């Protein structure tokens, strides 16, 4: 099963970005979000950033995930 999770963009190299969520760092594709920049929070699904979200919204979701993982 795949779920979408919020993550913070740590760095960008072309259409790839290193993101961090819950202490985990991964490389993802940001082709679908050409305006994404370092420091943005994005929703990640199946290795792709699919939406830029507010930092507060990301924090709420990440707190919920920590309570259930």
Draw up the topology in text.
Elements: E1 5-13, E2 16-21, E3 24-29, E4 41-45, E5 48-53, H1 55-68
Antiparallel strand pairs: 1-2, 1-4, 2-3, 4-5
Task: Describe what you observe in this structure.
With about 70 residues, the protein is α+β, with helices and mostly antiparallel strands. The chain has one domain: SH3 type barrels, CATH 2.30.30. It has one helix spanning about 55-69; strands at about 5-15, 15-20, 25-30, 40-45, 50-55. It is globular, with a radius of gyration of 11 Å.
Q: What is the CATH class designation?
A: Mainly Beta
CA-based shape:
globular
What is the end-to-end distance? 15 Å
Q: Any idea what the radius of gyration is?
A: 11 Å
Helix and strand content put the structural class at: alpha+beta
Q: Helix coverage percent of residues?
A: 10-25%
